[in-house]
Specification:
This protein has about 130 residues and is α+β, with helices and mostly antiparallel strands. This is SRPBCC family protein.
Amino acid sequence: MPSVRKEVFIDRSPEQVWDAVRDVGAFHVRLVPGYTENTLLDGYERTLILPDGGSVRELIVAVDEEERRMVFAVKEGRLPLLHHNASFQVFPDGDSGSTLVWITDFLPEDLAPQIQAQVDRVSAVIKQTIENAN
């Protein structure tokens, strides 16, 4: 199974970055405004509403406070995926920064270029959003 791993330095404390990542119901505000219009929560299920009216349904698998790690699995989305799960984990980096590690596992493997491009785009938005937050 292919994996895409992305490490992003964010010029904010691990506590600040984790606070945004762990807020699974505010994905559209705290991490990717404009990329996602709204986030709906129903128990462990999260539905991301996209700007074009489409949606992505995800299962929130874990929010681990001690490890600063959030795991989700896509149940229904836009790409023809047989499997898609991902995790975000926050690590201290330097005196006041953080590294956000995003690992995505998926099938089929021929979607790797699309998944890599999406992870690269969304990572840049996440970095900018968190660094620009008050």
